[in-house]
Amino acid sequence: MPVGRRGETLELAVLGLLHESPMHGYELRKQVDSVLGRSRLLSYGSLYPALKKMLRAGLLAEHTTPTGDGPVTRRQRIVYELTPAGHERFTGLVADVGPAAWEDDSFDVRFAFFARTDMEARLRILEGRRSRLEERLHRVQQQLERTQRQMDRYATELQRHGVESVEREVRWLSDLINAERHDVREPVTDQPPPPAPPPGVQSV
Amino acid sequence: MPVGRRGETLELAVLGLLHESPMHGYELRKQVDSVLGRSRLLSYGSLYPALKKMLRAGLLAEHTTPTGDGPVTRRQRIVYELTPAGHERFTGLVADVGPAAWEDDSFDVRFAFFARTDMEARLRILEGRRSRLEERLHRVQQQLERTQRQMDRYATELQRHGVESVEREVRWLSDLINAERHDVREPVTDQPPPPAPPPGVQSV
DNA sequence: GTTAGCATGTAAGGAGTTACATGATTTT
DNA sequence: AAAATCATGTAACTCCTTACATGCTAAC
What we know:
Two copies of one chain form a homodimer. Helix content of chain A is 57%, strand content 6%. By secondary structure, chain A is mainly alpha-helical. The first copy, chain A, folds into two domains: 3-67 and 75-106, Arc Repressor Mutant, subunit A; 118-185. Chain A has a three-stranded antiparallel β-sheet with strand order 1-3-2. In chain A, α1 packs across α4 (84-95) and α1 (9-20) packs parallel to α5. The radius of gyration of chain A is 21 Å and the shape is elongated. At the A-B interface, α5, α6 and α7 of A face α5, α6 and α7 of B. Chain B binds a DNA duplex through α2 and α3.
């Protein structure tokens, strides 16, 4: 079976962040909110139960901070870290290049941990994501052409803007794919690449 | 009280579409998917219960299509139309300019029915939406500056792209606000393409 | 001394999806 | 005759949010 069905995006985010360093829940929330710049902030009502569940599943280990350590008495915090099983799980998840990794929900998290993903998997995920978006683009573009005349200017404008956003997204992915293929090490510059037509890359 | 809290976006979409013409459920789904070009398609498991609920609430009336009408026997379809109460509800919803109308969820639907919304409400909603996005922008930009050095290039790139997307969205809203203010009749066009750079791959 | 931020949790409920169930009609 | 599309619905489940509950610590 593919590693998992759904809603493992929070799990992956937690695993990925704890992979870098142990943390307690409150800090974890801030990091999740930061790494996945989503519109809504993750609520504790989601996070803490998820942590408990992962504890039970043996992916995490908890240990409380010593209270009377220094002169400053901080509140007892519960610091989580990955178990070996948690490491394995993380490795398994980032290696999953199936359609689940291209979904709107998961893609961002996957991308955030691309540094821990090997290049082949990165390419597959980027390309999968791109073709998913291209399908969507075709659907919406055709719809726009078909229905444009019977829609008012606001509805039309909304669709036009939607199309442009997806086009932008596709371009972004294409750039990333090119960068992966050429393994460009140079920092982000506006150096135009050599005028030779890049092989196999369709212009977007 | 403000008209309602949450999740009235499907309700608004249905009311808005039926406001234009009566429809049966299957057709309604396609229209909802079309008008709100969301990533996932609306499932019948959401739509039909919602319709039943609105029926019970007296917002909709149903009538089945006559079967033996013409030579062609189409399947019985249930056509929904707005009741007077439904019309009122729709009018109430589009007149609501509170924060709920600026949320990610609702904004698109509100915008889609801007033709049925008076200009003052349109301006308030556009401006509210813009300041919401600007807040988000500041948050994320500051975060990007703070954490940039301790993040790998993928995490950084993700945030950079996120920032750019929001900036784009803000510009779009600003254009719309200007158009409203000047009551420009011309459609909102992209700035005339400067002849300068070839539409090649931007650096990543 | 009071507000703001740190820190952890639970209970109830909302909004949606998937999978299931059924059957007619149209196209290939 | 099979496959695709039209058409309507229900049950179970998932993921998430809001609201509640509790208490410590830092800053004003």
